[in-house]
Backbone:
């Protein structure tokens, strides 16, 4: 609702223009003396016009960015049940540890003898990830999940190259429920993509996989638990089908937070998998920090892993391995996102293995609680037991002429970040809800009761109007999302 105020501010929520739209070029945050006249050493490349920097004083700049930050919604503001994204609390202890001067002020070009502590972190997190996944080797360098996928498929290509089968292995199999990064990664690596249908219960159709797999198959990319929030229990048979055709089993490990301490991907027949430290191990993401996507792999793929990695000598000192003739090379500057390794290791050590096992149990319990209370209110996609997230379709909304987007926008008025909507693509009007283990029962009840409240009000024309108008109370109203995505304005031009 547009406020009726003179300033267009609503209480203490302040309107804020773009920084370029305010200020005058006569104002400045700093006072500098006129520079002395000296001959330019820029060889004619000096700019002719002054840059169009906004002229703001220091307090004006501070207010500008503070006001914008207050329009942001993050995990520290409220519940963020965005399925597949694992928006769990980021413990402050992790931040404290990452800010210890010995870590925060280390430089990647320092001699290794002077950064033994940082290298120790890399070594310890490698050992933890090996233990938790039951895999032989870890590469820490990928910068995020999608980058880990790229690394994983590169490893598979190297293995085929070594076997002399690179030309023959043209195809990657991907379920139709997969995250968009999976086919994007496979295409980027030059593979053809063959889509495998999901069965009606949301699990991979194993017969369809069997029929699609042959000597041209390079591998399968499968998320487990899958993007419908269901555990792929035929995983051993899936592995068998792939391996007997000489193909590799790539697991998209974005949902590893549901398996922590319960089962090891190495025991599920997986050959290579990325882990999103920024999902499973509570390091910040979204606008809050860079991602980190370590890749775990079987022994056979380890020789090809990107550089560098850390080695521990018998006397306990750490060194960096920066050369290895069989390695595919480097895929990231320096060592990967070291700040995220420190945060993730701090999380692992503070929970311990029993704590991490409870994390996955509680994540599944919270999602199951939501499934139980909303299954008769929203259309439940599958009666399979859900894991760490629960998937609904738009059946209950559609019968009253409403859609998923309408409920998502009502949730914004109620102060919740919406759930993931319209993903996975195999479910009509999908709503994927991932509460994570860090929400309390009171908070879950508030969320459930909010959805119940609105779903009891879908019948009258007046309330349908209300749904369609949502959000009313956010700084901006409903966008034409397709148009904004297709025609993004990424630059400011002077009017
Ligand atoms: C988040 C996610 C990815 C991509 O990870 P990024 O770190 O965002 O690159 C891939 N697959 C699934 C299932 C995901 O949820």
Residues:
């Amino acid at each position: 609702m547009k406020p009726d105020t003179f300033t267009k501010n609503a209480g203490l929520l302040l309107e804020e223009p773009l920084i370029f739209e305010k200020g005058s070029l006569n104002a400045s945050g700093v006072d500098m003396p006129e520079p002395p006249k000296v001959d330019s050493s820029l060889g004619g490349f000096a700019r002719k016009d002054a840059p169009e920097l906004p002229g703001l004083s220091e307090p004006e700049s501070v207010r500008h960015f503070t006001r914008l930050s207050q329009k942001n919604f993050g995990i520290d503001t409220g519940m963020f049940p965005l399925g597949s994204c694992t928006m769990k609390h980021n413990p402050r202890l992790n931040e404290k540890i990452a800010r210890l001067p010995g870590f925060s002020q280390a430089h990647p070009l320092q001699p290794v003898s002077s950064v033994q502590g940082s290298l120790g972190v890399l070594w310890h997190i490698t050992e933890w990830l090996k233990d938790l996944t039951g895999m032989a080797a870890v590469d820490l360098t990928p910068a995020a999940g999608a980058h880990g996928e790229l690394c994983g498929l590169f490893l598979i290509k190297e293995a085929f190259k070594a076997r002399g089968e690179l030309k023959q292995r043209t195809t990657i199999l991907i379920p139709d429920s997969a995250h968009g990064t999976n086919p994007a990664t496979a295409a980027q690596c030059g593979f053809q993509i063959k889509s495998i249908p999901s069965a009606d219960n949301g699990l991979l159709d194993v017969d369809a996989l069997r029929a699609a797999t042959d000597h041209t198959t390079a591998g399968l990319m499968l998320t487990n638990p899958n993007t419908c929030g269901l555990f792929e229990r035929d995983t051993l048979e899936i592995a068998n089908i792939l391996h007997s055709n000489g193909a590799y089993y790539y697991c998209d490990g974005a949902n590893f937070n549901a398996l922590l301490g319960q089962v090891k991907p190495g025991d599920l027949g997986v050959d290579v998998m990325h882990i999103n430290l920024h999902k499973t191990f509570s390091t910040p993401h979204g606008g809050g920090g860079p991602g980190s996507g370590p890749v775990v792999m079987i022994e056979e793929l380890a020789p090809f892993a990107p550089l560098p990695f850390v080695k521990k000598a018998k006397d306990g000192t750490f060194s960096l391995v920066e050369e290895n003739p069989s390695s595919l090379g480097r895929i990231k500057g320096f060592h990967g996102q070291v700040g995220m390794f420190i945060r993730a290791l701090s999380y692992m050590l503070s929970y311990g293995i029993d704590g991490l096992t409870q994390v996955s149990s509680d994540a599944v319990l919270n999602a199951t609680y939501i499934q139980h209370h909303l299954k008769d209110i929203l259309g439940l996609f599958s009666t399979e037991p859900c894991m760490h997230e629960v998937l609904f379709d738009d059946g209950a909304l559609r019968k009253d002429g409403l859609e998923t987007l309408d409920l998502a926008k009502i949730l914004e008025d109620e102060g919740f970040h919406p759930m993931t909507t319209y993903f996975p693509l195999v479910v009509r009007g999908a709503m994927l809800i991932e509460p994570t283990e860090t929400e309390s029962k009171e908070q879950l009840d508030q969320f459930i009761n909010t959805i119940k409240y609105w779903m009891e009000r879908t019948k009258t024309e007046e309330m349908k109007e209300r749904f369609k108008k949502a959000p009313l109370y956010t700084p901006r109203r409903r966008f034409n999302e397709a148009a904004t995505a297709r025609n993004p304005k990424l630059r400011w031009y002077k009017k």
Observations:
- The first strand starts at residue 137 and ends at 139.
- The chain has a mean pLDDT of 95.
